[in-house]
Fold:
Amino acid sequence: MENLLWLVPALPFAGALILIITGTRLSRPLVSLIGVGSVGVSALLTLILGSQFLSAGPTEPVYQQVVWQWFSVEGFNPGIAFHLDALSMVFIFVITFVGFLIHLYSTAYMADDDGFARFFAYLNLFVGSMLVLVLADNLVLLYLGWEGVGLCSYLLIGFWYKEPANGYAARKAFIITRVGDTALAIGLFMLFQLFGTLHIQTIATEAPQTWAVGSQAATIIAFLLLGGAVGKSGQLPLQTWLPDAMAGPTPVSALIHAATMVTAGVYLITRMHVIFELAPTAMLTVAIIGAVTLLIAGCAALAQSDLKRVLAYSTISQIGYMFLALGVGAWSAGIFHFMIHAFFKALLFLSAGAIIISLHHEQNMFRMGGLRKLLPAVFWTFLIGSASLAALPLITAGFYSKDQILWYAMAGERGNTWLYLAGLLGAFITAIYTFRMVFITFYGAPKSHVTHPPGPIITVPLIILAVLSLLGGFIELPHNFGHVVLFSDFLTPLLPAIHANDALGTSEWIFQLVAAIISLSGVYLAYVFYLQKPALQANMEQSSLFRAVHRFWYSGWGFDKLYDTLFVRPYVFLARINKNDIIDKIYAALAAIAQVLNRSLAQTQSGILRWYMMGVVVGALLIITLSLLP
Amino acid sequence: METTATTHLPSDYLPILIQFAAALGFVIFAIVVTHLIGPKRHSKVKDAAWECGVESVGNARTPVSYKYFMTAILFVIFDVEVIFLYPWAVNFRGLGMEGFIQMIVFMTMLMLGFYYVIKKGILKWE
Amino acid sequence: MRLSDLYFLMPLLILVGAATLNMLVVAVKRNHKVIFGITIVAHLVAVFTLLQLNGSSYQIPPFFVMDGWGIFNLGLILLTSLFVTLLSYAYFEQREERKEEYYLLLILATLGACVLVISQHFMALFLGLEILSVALYSLIAYLRTRERSDEAGIKYLILAALSSAFLLFGMALVYAVTGTMSFPEIGVYLQSVSELPLLLLTGFGLMIVGIGFKLGIVPFHMWAPDVYEGAPAPVTAFIATVSKGGMMGLLIRFFSQADAYRYANLMLIFTIIAIASMLAGNLLALRQKNIKRLLAYSSIAHLGYILVAFLAGNRLGVEAVSFYLVAYFITSLGAFGVVALLSDTERDADQLEDYRGLFWRRPATAAVFTAMLLSLAGIPLTAGFVGKFYILASGVNTQQWLLVLMLVLNSVIGLYYYIKVIAAMFAQTKSVQERRKVLHPALSFASGGAMAILGLLLIWIGVYPTSLVQLIRGLLATFMTTF
Structure:
């Protein structure tokens, strides 16, 4: 079976290829079949591979597959090889499985769109690229997948390209992530220069022997890799693209900008954890970035009125949690939260999509309301997703994954109180904005009409994801509470386990209790403000301070404006000065020289035989002269 | 003729210079002297360009029947064949059976070609 | 003469037999199909008998040697000639002229090239060269009613005769000094002297003239565009591939058997020639509007690239040359095949304008041509890229930085005019060009099939070059023992 590994990314690529070439000529059911089927078979293969993987026993199971060896000249032998270990297994499971559900959902969501085939072609291409990213056994291939998903993100954000704003959003996403990509590329160059290879396993084994902990090279490279991760994952300071990326169709937001692509940064850091562990400064930075991002994004989410933008900021904030986990060395907790987050955030986006399409592309929450009765199925799934996001204790998966992060932020070797407090405050804010969203959207008086009630193709993926959002957490329970460690055991041979501070060991239940109370009180606060006493809110809106803060948070802490004055304006100014492009002149001159040479050489091709003969004779003379040189 | 790389002096090239001078000198000498000492008697026939006995008046690019070239080329081919045959015949005994077979192969090929030539009517003049 | 000699010369004898048979059939009754069939079968049988000779080294003193290098080149030449034949059928079927003798001449030209690559003696060399050249004179001028055919034929005849004279003179000088015409014995002589006599160096220099002419490298390249333009498209393909490849095979054999790589002067000459060829070829092609001329210039440049690998003078270099020859042959056949495919009864499709918007009229043909042009430009995933990479590797391996630099620079220049053609093919044309009269579709089946195979081969070698590399390494094992 493991020989079929290559099929997992190959199938979506094949689907994309078929759809790109013949897409417009195929009927819609056929397009759906190819688009959904390719990812579906991939998901099936992944499940089979996964079950094999689990039954392989406690020895570190790794599947290596050289798919393609290009050539081998002088010790240079490029090719494509896949490396499947526990970490990639988690990722390909999420990508193919959640990806499949979202594909399925899209067949209904996009049913009336003109670009139906184009949509599935892009989506398949994305899934293929993302799989390449997480399966790559060397960093070049990883980078290829990295850029591939970036391209697909660009294409899909600007999917409705006739609206200029969507095109700008797509460009913004592309350019800002490019900043991070450049850092990543430089990091890769440095790695290659130092190790002579970009093979991940080789680097992982050689790095600890080459560098001491805290060595300068390791720190620089770790920071460069972090730059790439920050760009892709929408973390501070490169987070501004993600809210705008919501311009794409909602399934895209669910798949790319919530469940998979934006977590590529998490994957990268985890994959290169050996280097990060050699660079404690970088680790601390990861944790701080995570903590600050989760707070900032959480506050921004509080002020949004667009349903999808709330979810976008919440994604940034949740990835902040993952970064926090990675930064304190709780690798397995970070990946666990990634998986759970993929479930509930995909669920939330898809439910939001169902609402949006039912209300005829209405995204403003304040024009919704009362949908509890009108869209009961969507309401319940959305509620489950929200509960998981807000980490309601005991019943939701989100509680278990987030609790783990909070616990290690406090008790882990690299953790400290400040990180813990940031996480805790973030959890509070999360609960507020989540249920603010729920109450505004589903309760109160109905403000709009449901025109397209969702069909079964939309609700079935929602229900599956809802079940996972509830039950997914029970594979990893805290050790004072059930002590199920299936997930971390699965990752343990690969990722170093984290040890909790023994002094705090006995008091873990206190922290859990605090976290539970915090999230419940957040929900209560939201209830009071938005459902019970809307007057309170009205009162607050009177104060100018509140309005200023609201405006500030609404604009995402003014980062766009800041970057506009710091970078965009000076750049545009410079571009104006250099309108005629001085650098370009050099190339133009080269081209001109080539033209002149061409003209003068063309004179020799006169077509006159005796000149040709003279050419031969002169050539002979030159050669004889040269051969007689001493 | 063999000199080592280190001993090249300008004077070493003197023979070449002399050679050039001699060649040039001879050419000039020959041209000048023939003009000087040759007797000059003009007549209409003598002053006409010599063209292998063909009338040298009119367009030089008159078409010549390709049959002429064909016959000429065939003549050359069979001429060469005879050149091959003659030494073979002289050494017939020495070359023995192998030589005989080789010549048979050669002649067969030639005759096959000859068959082609006849079938294509190349030897028909009209 | 041993019987086993006949066994080892079987591919050549089959060609001789096929030529004779063709001649007889023509004498009895002209039939294009029958002649075409005989030619195809002869090529296939010759390839088959060649496959029986595993890469062992077999001497046929004093003229020939059948070793891995010879077998590699024979196979390449025979297969290339086979493809040229496949392309020729539809091309000549459209034309009024007598078609049958064409195949006869093609077989003879192939035979000449075959003799060339297995010769290890000046006599055999000259014999092969002349069989090839004489057949080519008439092949080039084959469509005699066309405007530029005669011109091309005459130009080639005169220049080839001139360069042959140089070659012959050079061989005579070498013979005068060494007293032998056999390559290995020349090698033995060269081993015995510490410094080369001037006469011998002059002889080598003069031989380079003859060799350089056939390879079409600067400064003996000027015939190439005129002849490429005037010759029928399949013949152009033949000149670009078999004729040049045969000479390249001979050159490498001569240099390795006589161990001439040791002489800095000869290396300097070839370095200058290589750089000049790359530059002149690419620069001349820049503004060329005639596809056949453009490809002629491009082939000048490509021979320059091959010389870079040749100059490495080691095992890797010969491997690179072999690989590049295969890639270049496939690509040239494909490119000229497209030209032949698009030609009509009056003229060859050699103007850039003929290709404008081709993609929208004949997508498959345009796709194949695009692949071929990309391969010529050395874009990854085509055979041309791997070949060029191989050459770069061999250049870097022997630290020939100047050559490597020129190679890279010229690849950039080359990209311009290849892309220009591709851009023309994908351009949307406003006015619908009048469709050329297409022959009976069954007629172009052979051409179409051949083009499809070439396209697939190109991509296959570009993606999985390993199998070809293994084949080349296996065959070179017997040849490269001297290194």
User: Anything to note?
Assistant: The beta strands of chain A are 63-69, 79-84. The interface with chain C takes residues 68-74, 76, 594-595, 597-598, 601-602, 604-605, 607, 609, 611-613, 615-616, 618-620, 622-624, 626-629 of chain A (CB under 8 Å). The CA atoms of residues 229 and 265 of chain A lie 4 Å apart. Chain A has a mean pLDDT of 84.
